[in-house]
């Protein structure tokens, strides 16, 4: 009684600490990319930037409502700007900062920043013959209602060299650029963190409410579309939570249902629930302590652990017959159970070895859970089962009959197994690999399409694709960034790149400033200045105010990039400059482009690389798959080694392993036959299935119950709970969880059925059996 | 007799009040077309620049500035957007209104003034109105001079409504004077406005 109370108190204590410390993580990127990889770091940096706190909204109108669209949208903006959580909202084509004001601030630096190739462009920029035309253009711009920028720059930089420097930005500062007719794009910035899901969800609900009300007041005909990191975050959390609750409920109800069907005894359930409670609490605590959080997908995968851990108490209870005290049975079964647990742990270790962040968490969760379940089975379950034999009620019918049939038809089944195995092996080369991590992550396809459409319609730069520049200091990084910008301009001319957002000339290296200045001084001769005066006079411009002054020394002052970064200019370059200790990273965001052309043009340049989040992530998936193959091989090798040590016979070890390996081959052959692409999730699932099936192999091979039928019956109970638990994963929306479900459930079922067929019927195991009987 | 005098006094006072309301003086009841001559004095120009053409306005709040000299340019302000079309270069701009474009504020201001829509003007300017036997004058002084596009704006006209003049002084001292003379009025001008709108929009 004291033991029972102590067990309950320990479990309650563990659950209490878990409840107190648990920090649930729902970001899919953390599970799929983690924090340590470059891609993960970039994603995390982006998620912290102001970009991630921005919604992109689009209001669309039916044809007859188009005229009302601007008015409706302005009213919407006015109303939502007052909502709690909204820090700023503006039409996307009219940002809250004045680009002309910021650019005009560079006018005094025009002679320092005007070209990426000052020597090469000198002939065009300082051609005397072109000066009258330039003066006419200047006059026209001064008189134009859209010549605001020129009017600000001209007094400081009459040749408008500053505008030449900002030629990559011309489209963006052209008045009225990007104002679409058929929809009204709006940017909304929230003051709350993008992953503060509760607040973001409330904000989204409020936005929809305001829109519906206004739409009603205008007689309908308008539609609101929203995208942005907070939209994906809320959607992902909703899906993950739904997956977790669906899988957990289905898994728990399914496992309990199977146990009831098997034991027909309610008293068995609390005993098993106690073991599962220990497993989950230990898994949760270990994960929280090691990683500082528990991902919701880890919990969903952890739910499958119920199906694995339940094997140990079932196996023990199934042997509780004939009045033998449960403690004695536990003492007899502990080597088998421990070996089974160790081989499963090896499977999860292989999972962790892939380096896949989400699976590292899952492995820690599972390994801690398995150890806790084993200890609870050996030390807690016997005290609850004292004086009772719940396992006695395990039905003899179904599994006994199945076992009898399998044993009776062992020879033809062996032949069939050999034939199917050979056929399956032939099918394996047809396997197709799926390395698209975005598809595996199960990001809402509708939202993704909407995001893509909206950004394409706005001709937007997507922060997921960039040229990354890295150097030890800012000056070197800027020089490299300028080299990359020159290449990107060429690519744009060739049509391989639609748009890009460079850092030049907002920040310009001292080397380029010096080169510009030297060329400017060389061409700004008295004759050139006189020709300019003449051109001004000819155009009717004020020669005095717009004349060129020949400098007598160096520039009055250099453009200091470090100081620029303290100004409002940083708002133009969100997430593009990252200065750390001893290293500087620059990101040049890209618009639609040909990845091969861009990466090819940049190859071989020191410190410059092409980065595409999607391709990077998919490259990671390929790496994970390769590691998964290695992990699978290593895991199987370690299991073989452990079994060989146990049985002092490699042949025996291989026999124990064969059912699981056969299950793996059959399952993958099915995927190949059905043209179902296979990811590293499937490989990992296969590893798990092998690890679980090895338990069955061990149980059947050692037969501590003495009777093969009894052992098969206990294994059957375990198999059913495992299959039910993993089948429950199939109810999840997430494709990765679905992959695990099919591969593990299929592999385990096949492995279980093959045990009586492949493993010796006891005659080959007399030595072990004899030793067991003596115990 | 005394009562008649009293009524006459009251009616005269009411008429004076009505006449002193700038909105009623400016409000359009039908489309109008005016010839205009614009003179700009900019610090960066060695001599004043002049342009001529037609201004068309309708009661719905559309203002068309059709510049014919020195080259054909159409600029149109509707309640929602601003269109610009330079026929000599084919350059087109389309801006959703209101827009923070200092140079576009001139035509938007004129749009409001000619349409008698003074509410948006009052948000940024203090309005002074004077009228005597020869004509009337509307003077706008910005409420926040540092952020306003214009230091001072005045619109004056004769009592018959045939001539008007708009003088705008920018913060940097540049001035623009637009002299307008009534050329035509009537519903038929709506077709001209619609045609110019299509041309400016490139439809």
Can you tag this structure with a few keywords?
heterodimer, A: 775 residues, Alpha-Beta Plaits, 4-stranded antiparallel beta sheet, disordered C terminus, B: 203 residues, alpha+beta, outer membrane lipoprotein receptor (LolB), chain A, 11-stranded antiparallel beta sheet, 5 helices, 42% strand
Describe the structure.
The complex is a heterodimer of chains A (775) and B (203). With 775 residues, chain A is of the alpha+beta class. Among the domains of chain A are: 33-93 and 178-227, Alpha-Beta Plaits (2-Layer Sandwich), CATH 3.30.70.100; 234-430 and 649-774, no CATH class. Helices cover 65% and strands 8% of the residues of chain A. In chain A, strands 7, 8, 9, 10 and 11 form a 5-stranded antiparallel β-sheet that branches. The two termini of chain A are 28 Å apart. Chain B has 203 residues and is an alpha+beta fold. Chain B has an 11-stranded antiparallel β-sheet, sandwiched between helices. The longest helix of chain B is centred in the first third of the chain and has 19 residues, at 2-20.
What best-fitting shape of chain B do the alpha-carbon axes yield? globular
Q: How many E strands of chain B?
A: 11
Task: Give the helix/strand class of chain B.
Answer: alpha+beta
- Indicate the proportion of strand residues of chain A: 5-15%
N/C terminus separation of chain A: 28 Å
Order of helices and strands of chain B: HHEEEEEEHHEEEEEH
- What is the architecture of chain B at the second tier of CATH? Clam
> Sheet bearing the most strands of chain A, described?
5 strands, antiparallel
Q: Low-confidence parts of chain A lasting 5 or more residues at pLDDT below 50?
A: 386-393, 762-775
CA-based gyration radius of chain B = 18 Å
Q: Compute the average pLDDT of chain B.
A: 82
Helix percent band of chain B: 25-40%
The helix tally of chain A amounts to 35
Largest sheet of chain B: 11 strands, antiparallel
Class from helix and strand fractions of chain A: alpha+beta
Domain unit count of chain B: 1
Radius of gyration of chain A: 35 Å
Helical content of chain A (DSSP H or I, runs of 4+) = 55-70%
Mean pLDDT level of chain A: 80
């Amino acid at each position: 009684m004291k033991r029972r109370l102590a067990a309950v108190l320990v479990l309650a204590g563990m659950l209490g600490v878990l409840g107190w410390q648990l920090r649930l993580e729902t970001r899919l990127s953390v599970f799929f990319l983690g924090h340590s990889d470059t891609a993960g770091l970039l994603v995390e940096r982006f998620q912290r930037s102001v970009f991630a706190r921005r919604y992109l909204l689009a209001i669309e109108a039916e044809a007859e409502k188009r005229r009302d669209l601007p008015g409706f949208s302005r009213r919407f903006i006015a109303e939502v700007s007052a909502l709690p959580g909204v820090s700023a909202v503006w039409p996307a084509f009219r940002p809250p900062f004045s680009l002309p004001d910021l650019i005009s601030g560079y006018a005094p630096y025009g002679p320092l920043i005007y070209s990426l190739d000052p020597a090469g462009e000198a002939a065009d920029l300082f051609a005397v013959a072109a000066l009258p035309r330039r003066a006419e253009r200047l006059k026209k711009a001064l008189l134009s209602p859209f010549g605001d920028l020129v009017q600000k720059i001209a007094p400081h930089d009459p040749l408008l060299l500053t505008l030449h420097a900002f030629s990559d930005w011309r489209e963006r500062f052209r008045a009225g650029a990007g104002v679409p007719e058929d929809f009204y794009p709006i940017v909304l910035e929230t003051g709350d963190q993008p992953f503060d899901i509760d607040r973001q969800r409330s904000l989204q609900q409020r936005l929809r409410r305001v829109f519906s009300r206004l739409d009603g007041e205008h007689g309908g005909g308008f539609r609101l579309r929203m995208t942005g990191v907070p939209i994906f975050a809320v959607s992902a959390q909703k899906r993950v939570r739904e997956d977790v609750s669906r899988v957990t409920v289905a898994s728990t109800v399914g496992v309990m249902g199977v146990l009831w069907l098997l034991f027909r005894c309610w008293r068995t359930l609390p005993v098993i629930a106690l073991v599962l409670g220990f497993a989950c609490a230990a898994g949760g605590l270990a994960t929280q302590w090691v990683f500082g959080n528990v991902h919701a997908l880890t919990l969903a995968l952890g739910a499958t652990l119920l199906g694995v851990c339940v094997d140990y108490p079932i196996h023990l209870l199934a042997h509780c017959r004939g009045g033998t005290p449960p403690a004695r049975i536990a003492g007899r079964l502990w080597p088998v159970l421990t070996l089974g647990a160790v081989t499963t742990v090896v499977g999860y270790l292989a999972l962790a070895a892939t380096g896949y962040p989400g699976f590292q968490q899952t492995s820690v969760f599972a390994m801690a859970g398995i150890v806790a379940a084993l200890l609870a089975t050996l030390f807690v379950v016997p005290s609850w089962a004292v004086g009772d034999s719940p396992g006695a009620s395990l039905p003899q019918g179904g599994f006994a009959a199945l076992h009898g049939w399998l044993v009776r038809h062992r020879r033809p089944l062996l032949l069939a197994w050999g034939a199917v195995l050979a056929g399956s092996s032939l099918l394996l080369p047809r396997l197709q690999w799926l390395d698209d991590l975005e598809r595996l992550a199960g990001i809402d396809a509708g939202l993704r399409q909407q995001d893509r459409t909206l950004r394409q319609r706005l001709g937007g730069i997507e922060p997921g694709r960039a040229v990354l520049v890295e150097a030890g200091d800012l000056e070197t990084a800027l020089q490299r960034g300028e080299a990359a910008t020159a290449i990107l301009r060429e690519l744009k001319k060739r049509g391989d790149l639609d748009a890009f957002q460079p850092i030049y000339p907002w920040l310009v290296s001292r080397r380029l400033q010096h080169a510009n200045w030297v060329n400017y001084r060389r061409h700004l001769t008295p004759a050139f200045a006189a020709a300019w005066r003449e051109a001004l006079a000819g155009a009717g411009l004020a020669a005095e105010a717009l004349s060129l002054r020949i400098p007598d020394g160096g520039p009055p002052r250099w453009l200091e990039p470090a100081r620029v970064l303290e100004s409002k200019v940083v708002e133009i370059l969100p997430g593009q400059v990252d200065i750390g200790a001893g290293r500087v990273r620059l990101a040049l965001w890209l618009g639609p482009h040909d990845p091969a052309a861009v990466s090819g043009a940049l190859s071989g340049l020191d410190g410059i690389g092409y980065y595409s989040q999607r391709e990077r992530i998919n490259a990671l998936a390929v790496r994970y798959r390769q590691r998964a193959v290695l992990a699978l091989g290593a895991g199987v090798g370690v299991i073989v080694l452990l079994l060989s040590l146990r049985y002092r016979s490699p042949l025996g070890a291989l026999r124990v392993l064969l059912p699981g390996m056969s299950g793996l081959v059959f399952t993958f052959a099915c995927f190949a036959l059905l043209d179902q692409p296979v990811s590293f999730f499937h490989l990992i699932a296969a590893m798990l299935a092998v690890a679980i099936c090895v338990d069955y192999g061990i149980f059947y091979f050692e037969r501590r119950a003495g009777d093969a039928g009894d052992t098969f019956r206990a294994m059957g109970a375990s198999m059913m709970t495992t299959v039910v638990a993993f089948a429950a994963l199939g109810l999840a929306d997430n494709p990765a969880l679905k992959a695990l479900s099919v591969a593990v459930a299929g592999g385990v079922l096949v492995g279980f059925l093959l045990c009586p067929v492949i493993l010796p019927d006891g005659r080959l195991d007399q030595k072990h059996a004899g030793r067991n009987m003596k115990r | 007799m005394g009562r008649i005098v009293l009524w006459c006094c009251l009616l005269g006072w009411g008429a004076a009040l009505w006449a002193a309301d700038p909105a009623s003086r400016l409000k359009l009841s039908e489309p109008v077309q005016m010839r205009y001559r614009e003179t700009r004095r900019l610090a960066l120009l060695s001599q004043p620049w002049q342009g001529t053409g037609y201004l068309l306005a309708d009661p719905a709040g559309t203002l068309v500035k059709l510049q014919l000299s020195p080259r054909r340019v159409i600029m149109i302000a509707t309640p929602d957007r601003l269109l610009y079309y330079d026929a000599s270069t084919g350059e087109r701009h389309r801006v959703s209104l209101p827009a923070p474009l200092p140079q576009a504020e001139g035509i938007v201001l004129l749009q409001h003034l000619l349409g008698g829509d003074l509410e948006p003007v009052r948000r940024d300017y203090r309005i002074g109105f004077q009228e005597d036997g020869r004509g009337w004058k509307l003077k706008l002084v910005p409420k926040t001079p540092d952020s306003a596009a214009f230091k001072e704006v005045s619109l004056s006209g004769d009592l018959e409504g045939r001539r008007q003049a708009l003088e705008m002084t920018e913060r940097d001292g540049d001035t623009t004077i637009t002299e307008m003379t009534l050329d035509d009025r009537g519903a038929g001008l709506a077709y001209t406005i619609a045609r110019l709108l299509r041309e400016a929009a490139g439809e």
